[in-house]
Specification:
The structure holds 2 protein chains of 2 kinds. By secondary structure, chain A is mainly β. Chain A is built from no helices and 11 strands. Chain A has one domain: Immunoglobulin-like (Sandwich), CATH 2.60.40. Chain A is globular. The model of chain A has no long low-confidence stretch (mean pLDDT about 95). Classes of the chains: A mainly beta, B mainly beta. At the A-B interface, strand 4, strand 5, strand 9 and strand 10 of A face strand 4, strand 5, strand 6 and strand 10 of B.
């Protein structure tokens, strides 16, 4: 069962414009959400996160919004730059009996055109 | 500072063989997790270890096993390899199994 879904496999945006990446989840027990960025031949790199008790978190050009009632989060990148072109993964933290794990979406390929 | 290091970078194995993948966490990090990323999908959780003890296991068959050593490095073993085991295997470390995961670059395993 896919508990975290990224329904857009790819997104193409012009340099300088806003990129909006979306993510939906089904498990209301998720308490923390993260966005990772991945370049080819590299591991995922942490970008930004948000606790379930907040609805917005900003870090420079990156802002994550959380709508708990809709079980939806989004990542906004403003302004988009060509170096932002990568695969973006949404992940949710799930508590296990003795630890926690990340549940990832399938990813969205972002292409920023110059 | 060295990040999470994984070895080998690439590996080609034949069906039925066994493979061992290695991970060294960031210095000071006591928790290591393993993830499998199949092409076109997001990483899937395999194991989490903290202080040398297994803290969680994902929905993977018993052919998959892991362990963590006293220096907090870890090995992932996969027995009786199947073609479907071909994937990028990612190791992530964190201070105490919390949210601050740092991933390595992964080991690309190809089973032929």
């Amino acid at each position: 069962d896919q508990q975290v879904k990224q329904n857009s496999p790819s997104l193409s945006v012009q340099e300088g414009r806003i990129s909006i990446l979306n993510c939906d989840y089904t498990n209301s027990m998720f308490d923390y959400f993260l966005w990772y960025k991945k370049y080819p031949a590299e591991g995922p790199t942490f970008l930004i996160s948000i606790s379930s008790i907040k609805d917005k978190n900003e870090d420079g050009r990156f802002t994550v919004f959380l709508n708990k009632s809709a079980k939806h989060l989004s990542l906004h990148i403003v302004p988009s730059q060509p170096g932002d072109s990568a695969v973006y993964f949404c992940a949710a933290s799930a508590v296990m009996e003795y630890g926690n794990k990340l549940v990832f979406g399938a990813g969205t390929i972002l292409r920023v055109k110059s | 500072d060295a990040g999470v290091t994984q070895s080998p970078t690439h590996l080609i194995k034949t069906r039925g063989q066994q493979v061992t993948l290695r991970c060294s966490p960031i210095s000071g990090h006591k928790s290591v997790s393993w993830y499998q990323q199949v092409l076109g999908q997001g990483p899937q959780f395999i194991f989490q270890y903290y202080e040398k003890e297994e803290r969680g296991r994902g929905n993977f068959p018993d052919r998959f096993s892991a362990r963590q050593f006293p220096n907090y490095s870890s090995e992932l073993n996969v027995n009786a390899l199947l073609l479907g085991d071909s994937a990028l295997y990612l190791c992530a470390s964190s201070l105490a199994g919390g949210y601050g995961y740092t991933f390595g670059s992964g080991t690309r395993l190809t089973v032929v």
